[in-house]
Write a structure and sequence with these properties.
This protein is α+β, with helices and mostly antiparallel strands. 56% of the residues lie in helices and 18% in strands. The protein has helices spanning 3-6, 17-64, 80-86, 161-209, 225-258, 260-275, 279-315, 323-341, 360-377, 402-408, 416-421, 428-439; strands spanning 67-70, 73-76, 94-100, 105-108, 123-130, 133-142, 152-158, 319-322, 344-348, 355-358, 381-387, 390-395, 442-447, 453-458. The chain folds into three domains: 20-167, Beta-Lactamase (2-Layer Sandwich), CATH 3.30.450; 215-315; 316-463, Heat Shock Protein 90 (2-Layer Sandwich). The chain has twelve helices and 14 strands. Helix 6 (260-275) runs antiparallel to helix 7 (279-315) and helix 9 runs antiparallel to helix 12 (428-439).
Length: 463
């Protein structure tokens, strides 16, 4: 394979937005102006032709006024000098002929002919070819009159130099100012568009200079609604990225901080067991390793749940959820663990179907954490209760003092029972609190009767 075949073609450079806008404005405008100029030129040329033709017809009438009957019949009374004076033109050469209706020449140039009037008209204009030149001609016919022996016609023809020169002048006077105005407009639009797009270039330079770790809002000039929307979209993206990065940093920090102790304990237990030769000691150490591993696994699950909760802030999808069905499935899933601990786990209020607009995974996470907390710190009876749109987990344990309830909503905070047992990580209620916040539900901690704790989550109406 040759080097040329492996080289990728260079990407084509995109056109400038300024040039594209300028082109999209000027090209239709220029075409519109040109069409308007052509229409105006055609109209002006039509009326100028009418004026020239009317002048030729006046010359024909002036010449015919000097045709009278003489001794030799119809004759032109003007001398050649007088005819030249009557038909004088500074630019065009003028030809004339006075003829009888049968075509015989009375006076003027022989061989000068033009289209005759039709439909009872006395005159007619036409273009003729005479002596190799294209002429504009008019034919004026006179009927027989009392002082004339027979009718006659007068033909006047002239070159079109004046007409052509006038058309050129009209074309120049029509196009030159419009081209000049178009150039001035292009310059004006160029500077105007560049000025309006300068904040966009400033935004681009600000983003180019932005450090990869800097997700603070970028300053946007409020020069146009579109630019403001673009700036808002960029800043909104920065905000979402910042939240995601912050969640990742918290997750990494939490994992690094919280897993260090259980992993070190597991290693210490394993090293101690390996140093012993008694199989009973090995079994005892393996049991402890299994317990430490279970705690570490539970901690990882809770950390992942918190990280997912932060991500769900922008990606949460809500669907209709049957609370009664979900609560029943969750209770059944925890029955084996409750039986192993000697805890009576039950439910009530699940007979009526209750539907809320929520996220099924988050609702399930709320129930899992509440039941897990109750199994760890509660008494011998746990009840999952559904009353309307309120889902509660009730235990008969020692409960939580009122002054400690707010602290337990924070991460890594444990009550006296948790610290005494040495279980958990202080994340359960903080996860429940965050999930409830994402679902727009109300979380309440209340004292149960006669003793224990009731944790309730009240969901809103179905949207």
């Amino acid at each position: 394979m040759t080097r040329e075949s492996t080289e990728q073609p260079a990407p084509q450079r995109a056109p400038s937005l300024t040039r594209r806008v300028l082109r999209n404005v000027l090209v239709p405008l220029a075409l519109t102006w040109m069409v308007g100029a052509v229409i105006a030129l055609v109209i002006a040329n039509y009326f100028s032709e009418q004026a020239f033709d009317r002048g030729m017809l006046d010359d024909a009438y002036a010449l015919s006024a000097n045709v009278q009957a003489g001794e030799r019949g119809i004759e032109l009374l003007l001398t050649p000098r007088e005819v030249a004076t009557v038909l004088f033109d500074q630019v065009d050469k003028v030809y004339f002929a006075v003829q009888r209706l049968d075509g015989t020449l009375i006076s003027g140039q022989a061989g000068l002919h033009a289209s005759l009037p039709v439909d009872g008209s006395r005159y007619r204009f036409s273009d003729v070819n005479y002596e190799g030149s294209v002429l504009r001609a008019v034919v004026l016919e006179h009927d027989a009159e009392p002082d004339l022996s027979m009718p006659y016609r007068v033909i006047i023809a002239q070159t079109t130099l004046s007409r052509t020169a006038l058309v050129r002048q009209l074309l120049g006077y029509a196009l030159a100012p419009q081209i000049l105005l178009l150039v001035l407009l292009a310059i004006w639009l160029w500077y105007g568009i560049r000025s309006d797009l300068r904040p966009l270039a400033d935004l681009q330079r600000a983003l180019d200079r932005r450090d990869v770790h800097d997700l603070s809002p970028v300053a946007v000039a409020q020069t146009s609604r579109e630019l403001q929307r673009l700036g808002d979209a960029v800043n909104s993206l920065f905000e979402r990225l910042g939240q995601s990065v912050q969640a990742q940093r918290e997750f990494v920090g939490n994992v690094a901080h919280e897993l260090r102790t259980p992993l070190a304990g597991i290693r210490a237990l394993a090293e101690y067991g390996l140093a012993q030769h008694d199989t009973s000691v090995w079994r005892e150490q393996l049991v402890r390793v299994s317990e430490r591993q279970g705690r570490a696994s539970h901690l990882i699950d809770q950390l992942l749940a918190l990280a997912l909760a932060e991500e769900a802030r922008t990606e949460l999808k809500r669907v209709p959820v049957r609370l009664d069905v979900l609560a029943e499935q969750t209770v059944l899933r925890h029955l084996a663990r409750a039986d192993a601990r000697g805890v009576d786990l039950g439910a009530r209020g699940l007979d009526d179907g209750v539907v809320v607009h929520a996220n099924e995974a988050l609702v399930e996470g709320i129930l899992d954490n509440l039941i897990d907390n109750a199994l760890r710190y509660g008494g011998h009876t746990i009840t999952v209760e559904l009353a309307g749109r309120t889902l509660s987990v009730i235990d008969d344990g020692p409960g939580i003092p009122l002054e400690a309830q707010r602290d337990l909503m924070q991460r890594w905070s444990q009550g006296p029972a948790g610290e005494k047992l040495g279980q958990g990580s202080g994340l359960g209620l903080s996860i429940v609190s965050r999930y409830a916040e994402l679902l727009g539900a109300e979380l309440r901690l209340e004292a149960a009767e006669p003793t224990g704790l009731r944790v309730s989550v009240a969901f809103g109406e179905v949207a």
